[in-house]
Amino acid sequence: MVxxxxxxxxxxxxxxxxxxSPLACADSPLxxxxxxxxxxxxxxxxxxxxxxQYPALEGTVQGMIADAKTAxxxxxxxxxxxxxxxxxxxxxxxALITTLSQLETALKxxxxxxxxxxxxxxxxxxxQGHTRFKPKQD
Length: 138
Description:
Blueprint: H1 2-14, H2 31-47, H3 54-72, H4 83-108, H5 112-133
Helix pairs in contact: 2-3, 3-4, 4-5
């Protein structure tokens, strides 16, 4: 059941819908960059199979990298006062930034197989991060 809820939450975020959690709630500073990355992820999913869209998607990925760097300077509510969780969150965001940078390179090279593989990796990282750093919905 929790996996199903995580899937729904991930889809909602990808669609840019507001979620009720400390990671993305209205009063959280993380809401902005997380929502923006969710929109970028959705755009990537829609355009990844069309090489003619890759130049525009490069800009999308650049925006996602900037958002991830901004989010990395913040601490999710679940990690507040927990240095190991804060360190883990920063490591997770660093890994995401690295993967997004590799995705940008693949898009520039018009390497659709690599771009698709990296987009799947971004999705996996997104799910792992949300599973660990977003509170479980009751």
